[in-house]
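Re: that chain you flagged

S.,

Sorry for the slow reply, it's been a week of failed gels. I finally had a moment to sit down with the sequence you sent. For the record, here it is as I used it:
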Amino acid sequence: MSAITQVNRLDYINIGLLIFSCILAFIMPFELFLFAYGVLGPLHYLTEISWLHDKNYYTTDKRDVILLVIISLFLTVTNLKQYIGLSDLEMDYKWINRAIYVAFASSLFFAFIKNNVYKIIGVVVVILLSAISDNHLLFFSMFLPTLIHVYVFTLLFMLYGALKNSSKVGYISAGLHFLIPFILFYAFQDKILVAVTPYGLNSYKEFASLNSTLIHFLDANSAGEKDMIQLIFHSQTGIAVMRFIAFAYTYHYLNWFSKTKVIGWHDIPKSRAILILVLWIVSVALYLIDYSLGFKWLFLLSFMHVMVEFPLNYISFVGIFKEIFKLNNPPKS
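Prediction finished late last night. Pasting the structure tokens below so you have them in one place:
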């Protein structure tokens, strides 16, 4: 099968996966998210980190990733401190925000600067300027590692692929990905097809802050609502928000697995494949035993796979602009 035919076939598959994810998000958003996050998520983290490792994390020096891993460890310790015997550790929430800012901004230098002296100077400047991220707490600490990663960056990857391959089906796929959230928010607003189960309500507590933040952002009248369970799990806005979150995460994972043959993330040493398989089985088992336990077990991997992808995100941004420039400035014959 030629490369072009394979890309077109993948675009059609992704249109099907988009529609599939959208339908499931309509029907049972909370349970869909919990399944995708607990079953597909761990395998995604493990295989993507493995693939990025073989690609030198898309940095100019593989050692650059050390800073991103250290920041991931810092975020894990500060977020789970009460579970690892560090409950007395005082940590201002702003430092978590600044750490994510440093990882994101430094990755720009990791992706494009080869001179280590210039790179170090850039990272130092980023650290000194990290206080400016205090004005964007929600962006860096809440949305960048979650919805921006799974929805916005996925959309940009799809657009970059469509531009690079001049794929009309790819443009349709990216356009559908952009439009589906509007459908999820405005179609069947007053209809809940499958209400959240007691298991879903109890297991989703680790993620509820994302929903409440989005609900307050979209509905100013909800700010005075004290019954957060009613607001998140049963209100019209809460259901719409959950449909979007469930769709974004589910398709993000399915999109990754659909690209297996195109990017070849499965082409790894047998020993590493066995390790990934064992860790995935253990992770899913922990989620089945206690969802909260599985969440804590995989917190480091879930955050780290976001951090180490930042250089690739920047390369994709630049790639999109380069492809658009080529369209607007075709070579002269």
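What I noticed first: The two ends are 31 Å apart (CA to CA).

Talk soon,
D.
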